[in-house]
Amino acid sequence: QREERTVANTAQAVTWRTTIEHTYFPVCSAGIEVDFRVPEFSHAMSRIPVVFYLPNLLCYARIVLAFVGLHCAIASLPSIFTSDTNGTNIVHAAPSPGLCIWIWILSAFLDLFDGLAARRLLQCSKFGVILDILADNILRTVTWIATAIVAVLFTLSEVMADAGAGEKSMQIKVLRSATIVLVACGIICLEWVTMLCTQLKSAEDGRHWKAQNGSVPSNNGEGRKMSRQEEPPVLVSAIFRNNFRSPLGILSIYGLFSCGMWTYGSHISQIRNAIPLFDWWWILAVLGRLLSIRVEIWLCSSYLRLVLSDDEQKRE
After folding, report:
1. Count of C-beta atoms within a 10 Å radius of residue 298
2. CB 44 within 8 A of CB 79
3. Strand pairing partners for 37?
Protein backbone atom coordinates (compact mmCIF):
# COMPACT_ATOMS: atom_id res chain seq x y z
CA GLN A 1 0.00 0.00 0.00
CA ARG A 2 2.60 2.51 -1.08
CA GLU A 3 4.18 3.97 -4.19
CA GLU A 4 7.47 2.50 -5.37
CA ARG A 5 9.60 4.48 -7.78
CA THR A 6 12.49 3.11 -9.82
CA VAL A 7 14.83 4.97 -12.11
CA ALA A 8 16.69 3.25 -14.95
CA ASN A 9 19.10 5.46 -16.86
CA THR A 10 17.12 8.52 -18.01
CA ALA A 11 13.71 6.87 -18.22
CA GLN A 12 11.63 6.95 -15.06
CA ALA A 13 9.27 4.09 -14.26
CA VAL A 14 6.52 4.30 -11.68
CA THR A 15 5.28 1.11 -10.08
CA TRP A 16 1.61 1.35 -9.32
CA ARG A 17 0.29 -1.13 -6.79
CA THR A 18 -3.34 -1.91 -7.46
CA THR A 19 -5.95 -4.61 -6.99
CA ILE A 20 -6.80 -7.23 -9.58
CA GLU A 21 -9.85 -5.10 -10.48
CA HIS A 22 -7.43 -2.53 -11.98
CA THR A 23 -8.29 0.37 -9.72
CA TYR A 24 -5.38 2.65 -10.50
CA PHE A 25 -4.56 4.49 -7.28
CA PRO A 26 -1.18 4.87 -5.54
CA VAL A 27 -2.84 3.60 -2.33
CA CYS A 28 -5.41 0.86 -2.77
CA SER A 29 -7.43 -1.56 -0.73
CA ALA A 30 -6.28 -5.06 0.14
CA GLY A 31 -6.41 -7.68 -2.56
CA ILE A 32 -4.29 -9.39 -5.19
CA GLU A 33 -1.74 -6.83 -6.29
CA VAL A 34 -0.41 -6.37 -9.79
CA ASP A 35 2.44 -4.04 -10.80
CA PHE A 36 1.98 -1.71 -13.75
CA ARG A 37 5.01 0.21 -15.01
CA VAL A 38 4.02 3.43 -16.77
CA PRO A 39 7.23 5.28 -17.68
CA GLU A 40 5.39 7.37 -20.28
CA PHE A 41 3.20 8.94 -17.59
CA SER A 42 6.17 9.63 -15.32
CA HIS A 43 8.19 11.08 -18.18
CA ALA A 44 5.31 13.38 -19.15
CA MET A 45 5.01 14.60 -15.57
CA SER A 46 8.76 15.29 -15.37
CA ARG A 47 8.57 17.59 -18.41
CA ILE A 48 6.11 19.96 -16.70
CA PRO A 49 7.85 22.84 -14.85
CA VAL A 50 7.27 22.72 -11.11
CA VAL A 51 5.67 26.16 -11.08
CA PHE A 52 2.98 24.83 -13.45
CA TYR A 53 2.10 21.71 -11.46
CA LEU A 54 -1.66 21.46 -11.02
CA PRO A 55 -1.46 21.60 -7.16
CA ASN A 56 0.62 24.78 -7.43
CA LEU A 57 -1.89 26.29 -9.85
CA LEU A 58 -4.60 25.61 -7.27
CA CYS A 59 -2.49 27.42 -4.65
CA TYR A 60 -2.12 30.41 -6.97
CA ALA A 61 -5.89 30.43 -7.39
CA ARG A 62 -6.37 30.27 -3.60
CA ILE A 63 -4.11 33.29 -3.10
CA VAL A 64 -5.89 35.28 -5.81
CA LEU A 65 -9.29 34.37 -4.34
CA ALA A 66 -8.14 35.52 -0.90
CA PHE A 67 -7.34 39.00 -2.22
CA VAL A 68 -10.47 39.11 -4.39
CA GLY A 69 -12.46 38.38 -1.24
CA LEU A 70 -10.64 41.18 0.57
CA HIS A 71 -11.51 43.57 -2.24
CA CYS A 72 -15.17 42.53 -2.09
CA ALA A 73 -15.16 42.88 1.69
CA ILE A 74 -13.85 46.43 1.53
CA ALA A 75 -16.04 47.40 -1.42
CA SER A 76 -19.17 46.17 0.36
CA LEU A 77 -18.62 48.29 3.45
CA PRO A 78 -20.29 51.66 4.07
CA SER A 79 -16.88 53.19 3.61
CA ILE A 80 -17.70 56.14 1.32
CA PHE A 81 -19.20 59.04 3.20
CA THR A 82 -20.41 62.10 1.35
CA SER A 83 -22.78 64.88 2.21
CA ASP A 84 -25.82 66.17 0.43
CA THR A 85 -26.81 69.82 0.17
CA ASN A 86 -28.23 69.71 3.69
CA GLY A 87 -25.01 68.31 5.14
CA THR A 88 -26.59 64.92 5.86
CA ASN A 89 -24.23 61.93 5.75
CA ILE A 90 -25.00 59.47 2.95
CA VAL A 91 -23.70 55.89 3.13
CA HIS A 92 -23.01 54.04 -0.11
CA ALA A 93 -22.70 50.26 0.21
CA ALA A 94 -22.47 47.39 -2.27
CA PRO A 95 -25.55 45.15 -2.50
CA SER A 96 -23.79 41.86 -1.61
CA PRO A 97 -21.72 42.17 1.58
CA GLY A 98 -21.65 38.40 2.00
CA LEU A 99 -19.95 37.71 -1.35
CA CYS A 100 -16.49 37.86 0.22
CA ILE A 101 -17.46 35.08 2.67
CA TRP A 102 -18.28 32.69 -0.18
CA ILE A 103 -15.07 33.60 -2.00
CA TRP A 104 -13.00 32.89 1.11
CA ILE A 105 -14.85 29.61 1.65
CA LEU A 106 -14.04 28.61 -1.94
CA SER A 107 -10.38 29.46 -1.35
CA ALA A 108 -10.32 27.31 1.79
CA PHE A 109 -12.23 24.50 0.03
CA LEU A 110 -9.58 24.28 -2.71
CA ASP A 111 -7.06 23.40 0.01
CA LEU A 112 -8.70 19.96 0.15
CA PHE A 113 -7.69 19.22 -3.44
CA ASP A 114 -4.15 20.50 -3.92
CA GLY A 115 -2.57 17.82 -1.72
CA LEU A 116 -4.76 15.12 -3.27
CA ALA A 117 -3.80 16.26 -6.77
CA ALA A 118 -0.11 16.30 -5.84
CA ARG A 119 -0.21 12.67 -4.70
CA ARG A 120 -2.37 11.35 -7.53
CA LEU A 121 -0.42 13.15 -10.29
CA LEU A 122 3.01 12.56 -8.72
CA GLN A 123 3.50 16.33 -8.51
CA CYS A 124 4.79 16.65 -4.95
CA SER A 125 7.48 19.30 -4.54
CA LYS A 126 9.14 21.41 -1.85
CA PHE A 127 7.96 24.50 -3.70
CA GLY A 128 4.40 23.19 -3.50
CA VAL A 129 4.68 22.60 0.25
CA ILE A 130 5.86 26.18 0.81
CA LEU A 131 3.22 27.57 -1.53
CA ASP A 132 0.45 25.65 0.25
CA ILE A 133 1.53 27.07 3.63
CA LEU A 134 1.69 30.59 2.21
CA ALA A 135 -1.77 30.24 0.66
CA ASP A 136 -3.20 29.16 4.03
CA ASN A 137 -1.58 32.03 5.91
CA ILE A 138 -2.49 34.64 3.29
CA LEU A 139 -6.14 33.57 3.34
CA ARG A 140 -6.36 33.81 7.13
CA THR A 141 -4.44 37.11 7.15
CA VAL A 142 -6.76 38.87 4.71
CA THR A 143 -9.84 37.79 6.69
CA TRP A 144 -8.41 39.41 9.82
CA ILE A 145 -7.41 42.52 7.84
CA ALA A 146 -11.01 42.80 6.65
CA THR A 147 -12.20 42.35 10.23
CA ALA A 148 -9.96 45.18 11.46
CA ILE A 149 -11.11 47.48 8.66
CA VAL A 150 -14.80 46.82 9.22
CA ALA A 151 -14.40 47.35 12.98
CA VAL A 152 -12.80 50.76 12.48
CA LEU A 153 -15.24 51.91 9.80
CA PHE A 154 -18.32 50.84 11.71
CA THR A 155 -17.06 52.60 14.81
CA LEU A 156 -16.55 55.76 12.76
CA SER A 157 -20.05 55.46 11.31
CA GLU A 158 -21.54 54.97 14.78
CA VAL A 159 -19.66 57.96 16.16
CA MET A 160 -20.79 60.14 13.26
CA ALA A 161 -24.37 58.96 13.59
CA ASP A 162 -24.40 59.56 17.36
CA ALA A 163 -22.55 62.85 17.36
CA GLY A 164 -24.69 64.03 20.24
CA ALA A 165 -23.96 61.00 22.42
CA GLY A 166 -21.97 61.33 25.58
CA GLU A 167 -18.20 61.14 25.68
CA LYS A 168 -18.25 57.91 27.67
CA SER A 169 -20.37 56.17 25.03
CA MET A 170 -17.97 57.23 22.31
CA GLN A 171 -14.99 56.03 24.33
CA ILE A 172 -16.57 52.60 24.75
CA LYS A 173 -17.13 52.30 21.00
CA VAL A 174 -13.57 53.36 20.22
CA LEU A 175 -12.19 50.97 22.83
CA ARG A 176 -14.20 48.10 21.35
CA SER A 177 -12.88 48.88 17.89
CA ALA A 178 -9.30 49.18 19.13
CA THR A 179 -9.59 45.82 20.90
CA ILE A 180 -10.73 44.08 17.73
CA VAL A 181 -7.89 45.66 15.74
CA LEU A 182 -5.32 44.59 18.35
CA VAL A 183 -6.69 41.03 18.40
CA ALA A 184 -6.60 40.86 14.59
CA CYS A 185 -3.02 42.18 14.45
CA GLY A 186 -1.93 39.83 17.24
CA ILE A 187 -3.40 36.77 15.51
CA ILE A 188 -1.81 37.73 12.18
CA CYS A 189 1.61 38.12 13.81
CA LEU A 190 1.27 34.88 15.76
CA GLU A 191 0.36 32.90 12.63
CA TRP A 192 3.37 34.15 10.66
CA VAL A 193 5.75 33.64 13.59
CA THR A 194 4.40 30.10 13.99
CA MET A 195 5.00 29.43 10.31
CA LEU A 196 8.57 30.69 10.66
CA CYS A 197 9.30 28.55 13.72
CA THR A 198 7.77 25.36 12.33
CA GLN A 199 9.55 25.68 8.99
CA LEU A 200 12.91 26.41 10.60
CA LYS A 201 12.44 23.39 12.85
CA SER A 202 11.48 21.24 9.87
CA ALA A 203 14.58 22.39 7.98
CA GLU A 204 16.79 21.47 10.94
CA ASP A 205 15.27 18.01 11.50
CA GLY A 206 14.49 17.16 7.89
CA ARG A 207 10.91 16.26 8.76
CA HIS A 208 7.53 17.92 8.48
CA TRP A 209 6.52 19.71 11.67
CA LYS A 210 3.44 17.48 12.01
CA ALA A 211 5.66 14.39 12.03
CA GLN A 212 7.86 16.00 14.67
CA ASN A 213 4.89 16.39 16.99
CA GLY A 214 3.36 13.00 16.36
CA SER A 215 0.26 14.11 14.48
CA VAL A 216 1.30 11.98 11.48
CA PRO A 217 3.55 8.94 11.28
CA SER A 218 7.15 9.72 10.41
CA ASN A 219 9.87 7.80 8.65
CA ASN A 220 12.91 7.95 10.89
CA GLY A 221 15.16 7.31 7.94
CA GLU A 222 14.17 10.57 6.28
CA GLY A 223 15.34 12.95 8.99
CA ARG A 224 18.87 14.24 8.87
CA LYS A 225 18.86 14.64 12.64
CA MET A 226 16.82 13.26 15.46
CA SER A 227 14.03 15.58 16.45
CA ARG A 228 14.55 17.39 19.72
CA GLN A 229 10.94 18.52 19.95
CA GLU A 230 9.54 18.74 23.46
CA GLU A 231 6.74 16.46 24.50
CA PRO A 232 3.52 18.42 23.81
CA PRO A 233 1.15 19.20 26.69
CA VAL A 234 -1.94 17.06 27.11
CA LEU A 235 -4.28 19.55 25.40
CA VAL A 236 -1.91 20.10 22.48
CA SER A 237 -1.38 16.36 22.11
CA ALA A 238 -5.16 15.81 22.03
CA ILE A 239 -5.47 18.40 19.24
CA PHE A 240 -2.62 16.80 17.26
CA ARG A 241 -4.02 13.29 17.63
CA ASN A 242 -4.56 11.39 14.38
CA ASN A 243 -3.45 14.36 12.26
CA PHE A 244 -6.12 16.66 13.73
CA ARG A 245 -8.86 14.10 12.99
CA SER A 246 -10.29 14.31 16.49
CA PRO A 247 -13.06 16.49 17.97
CA LEU A 248 -10.58 19.01 19.38
CA GLY A 249 -8.45 18.90 16.25
CA ILE A 250 -11.41 19.48 13.94
CA LEU A 251 -12.64 22.32 16.14
CA SER A 252 -9.21 23.98 16.17
CA ILE A 253 -8.83 23.76 12.38
CA TYR A 254 -12.36 25.11 11.94
CA GLY A 255 -11.62 28.06 14.20
CA LEU A 256 -8.22 28.63 12.59
CA PHE A 257 -9.72 29.14 9.14
CA SER A 258 -13.16 30.58 9.92
CA CYS A 259 -12.86 32.82 12.98
CA GLY A 260 -11.72 35.82 10.95
CA MET A 261 -14.58 35.39 8.48
CA TRP A 262 -17.24 35.02 11.19
CA THR A 263 -15.87 38.00 13.13
CA TYR A 264 -16.01 40.07 9.96
CA GLY A 265 -19.60 38.97 9.34
CA SER A 266 -20.61 39.75 12.92
CA HIS A 267 -20.39 43.47 12.10
CA ILE A 268 -22.77 43.23 9.14
CA SER A 269 -26.44 42.64 9.82
CA GLN A 270 -27.14 41.31 6.32
CA ILE A 271 -24.71 38.44 6.89
CA ARG A 272 -25.90 37.72 10.43
CA ASN A 273 -29.53 37.55 9.30
CA ALA A 274 -28.80 35.45 6.19
CA ILE A 275 -26.95 32.61 7.97
CA PRO A 276 -28.99 30.41 10.36
CA LEU A 277 -27.52 30.04 13.85
CA PHE A 278 -24.85 32.59 13.00
CA ASP A 279 -23.96 33.29 16.64
CA TRP A 280 -23.41 29.60 17.40
CA TRP A 281 -21.14 29.14 14.38
CA TRP A 282 -19.23 32.22 15.50
CA ILE A 283 -18.90 30.99 19.09
CA LEU A 284 -17.57 27.61 17.88
CA ALA A 285 -15.08 29.43 15.66
CA VAL A 286 -13.86 31.54 18.58
CA LEU A 287 -13.43 28.45 20.76
CA GLY A 288 -11.55 26.69 17.97
CA ARG A 289 -9.33 29.72 17.44
CA LEU A 290 -8.45 29.76 21.13
CA LEU A 291 -7.39 26.11 20.84
CA SER A 292 -5.27 27.00 17.81
CA ILE A 293 -3.66 29.86 19.72
CA ARG A 294 -2.68 27.41 22.45
CA VAL A 295 -1.01 25.17 19.87
CA GLU A 296 0.73 28.10 18.15
CA ILE A 297 2.09 29.47 21.41
CA TRP A 298 3.47 26.05 22.33
CA LEU A 299 5.06 25.54 18.89
CA CYS A 300 6.77 28.93 19.03
CA SER A 301 7.85 28.74 22.65
CA SER A 302 9.20 25.19 22.38
CA TYR A 303 11.27 26.07 19.32
CA LEU A 304 12.61 29.25 20.91
CA ARG A 305 13.60 27.28 24.01
CA LEU A 306 15.58 24.91 21.81
CA VAL A 307 17.31 27.84 20.12
CA LEU A 308 18.23 29.37 23.47
CA SER A 309 19.44 25.98 24.70
CA ASP A 310 21.73 25.68 21.67
CA ASP A 311 23.09 29.16 22.28
CA GLU A 312 23.80 28.37 25.92
CA GLN A 313 25.61 25.16 24.97
CA LYS A 314 27.79 27.05 22.49
CA ARG A 315 28.76 29.50 25.21
CA GLU A 316 29.88 26.64 27.42
Report:
1. 19
2. no
3. 15
Cβ neighbours, 10 Å, residue 168: 8
CA distance 1 to 60: 31
Query: How many angstroms separate the CA atoms of 255 and 2, rounded?
Result: 33
- Full-model pTM: 0.75
Q: From 59, 44, 177, select the one nearest 114 (Cα to Cα).
A: 59
Length of the chain (residues): 316
Distant-in-sequence, close-in-space partners of 289: CB < 8 Å, separation ≥ 6:
187, 252, 255, 256, 259
Q: Give pLDDT, residue 45.
A: 56
Q: For residue 27, how many other CB atoms are within 10 A of its CB?
A: 11
Quickly count: other Cβ atoms within 10 Å of residue 172's Cβ. 12
Query: pLDDT tens digit string along 87-141?
Result: 444 444 454 777 888 999 999 999 888 888 888 888 888 888 889 999 999 999 9
**pLDDT above 90 coverage of the chain, percent:** 35
Q: Which residue, 6, 5, 29, is CA-closest to 18? A: 29
Burial per residue of 185-194, b for 16 or more beta-carbon CB atoms within 10 angstroms, e otherwise: eebbebbebb
Q: How far is Cα 59 from Cα 75, in angstroms, rounded to an integer?
A: 24
What are the beta bridge partners of residue 6? Answer: 13
Whole-angstrom CA distances from 58 to 64, 69, 109, 116, 174 are: 10, 16, 11, 11, 40
User: For the segment 44-54, what is each residue's pLDDT rounded down to a tens digit?
Assistant: 555 788 888 88
3-class secondary structure for 42-81? HHHHHCCCHHHCHHHHHHHHHHHHHHHHHHHHHHCCCCEE
Residue 187's nearest CA partner among 73, 39, 267, 288 is 288
